Amino acid sequence: MARRGYDYARPVRRILVALLVMVLMAVFVFWRIDSPRAERMRAAVVDRFLPSMDWAMVPVTAASRMVASFQSYQRLYEQNQELRRELQRMSAWKEAAVQLEQENAKLLAQNNVRLDPALTGVSGVVLADSGTAFRQSVLLNRGARDGILEGWATMDGLGLVGRISGVGETTSRVMLLTDPSSRLPVTIQPSGQRALLTGDNTALPYLDFMESPENIRPGDRVITSGDGGLFPPGLLVGQAVQTTDRRMRVRLAADYGRLEFLRVLRSHPAEQLVDSGVLILPPEPGMIGPQLPQPAPTPTDQAAALATAPVPALSPAPEADREAQASD
């Protein structure tokens, strides 16, 4: 087994450690001496060695910059959150502005649109929505004192909504087109097809009794036809659509989601008949089928017919007339 040589590094390390401790103790004692000369020496040492210690301040400077960056990021995060909250508030104001704009447009449309020079209207506010699973109607704050009559059409400024189905003194009920009992004669343009719009308690009432369904296309304009004299002709109802069940329905032009203001159209009064005698009445319906054979008259029936027959007036004879003239 080989022997290790003498380790000369250990004593050198001990000497260096001892010298370092002595130098540090001397610097500590020197730094603690309260003397003007020692103070000048300390200032000279600081002026000599401190400027060259910038390399030692690099980690500290980097750490301070990291702390400042983190504080700046924290401020940016708080500002971002504040801007998000402000954006949410502005979105709410934007929605309110859009609603007010739509309401203003509806009111302007109700006040300016004149479908017929002789067709005027009365605007009212919807008080309540009394829609149920079996009935679709709303309550309007216009009644008999405002001249409202049952059967008049109502619009929201965009399209037809329904008709007046009940009138009180200060309120009236409007039956919507989506009501199951609603039936409205309509015309589909541009084909000119006539149909019946029937409500079924859904947002898309269906078209029934169409003359030629193959001539109707999705997107066709649906207006009132005026048949029956209940509604004025030409009122916008909506657009034709075809659902998944291959049935033609109507997407209503009126905004049923926000029924706030309605316009009641004063329809023309129905024409009343003064003299019914000028009408040509149809003949009374007789017996359907071939006539039954009549029995031959008996002598008794013939004698009764002769007895009841009127006696014709006899004119005077010509001779009697001449004798009367001669005597005169």
Short précis:
This protein is α+β, with helices and mostly antiparallel strands.
How is this structure best described in words?
This protein has helices spanning 9-32, 36-49, 54-112, 299-308, 318-327, and strands at residues 121-129, 137-140, 153-155, 160-167, 172-176, 183-189, 193-198, 206-208, 221-224, 236-242, 248-252, 261-265. The protein is an alpha+beta fold. The strands form 2 sheets. It has a 6-stranded antiparallel beta barrel. Strands 8-7-6-9-10-11 form a 6-stranded antiparallel sheet, with no helix packed on it. β4 and β5 form a beta hairpin. The longest helix has 59 residues, at 54-112. It is rod-shaped, with a radius of gyration of 54 Å. The mean pLDDT is 76.
Features:
328 residues, 12 strands, rod-shaped, alpha+beta
Helix-strand pattern? HHHEEEEEEEEEEEEHH
State the share of residues found in helices, binned by percent.
25-40%
The shape, in one word, is rod-shaped
Major sheet details: 6 strands, antiparallel, barrel
Going across the biggest sheet, name each strand in turn: 1-2-5-4-3-12
Number of helices: 5
Helix-strand makeup class: alpha+beta
Terminal Cα span: 204 Å
Average predicted confidence as pLDDT: 76
Total strand segments: 12
Q: Radius of gyration in whole Å, from Cα?
A: 54 Å
- Share of β-strand residues: 15-25%
Low-confidence stretches: none
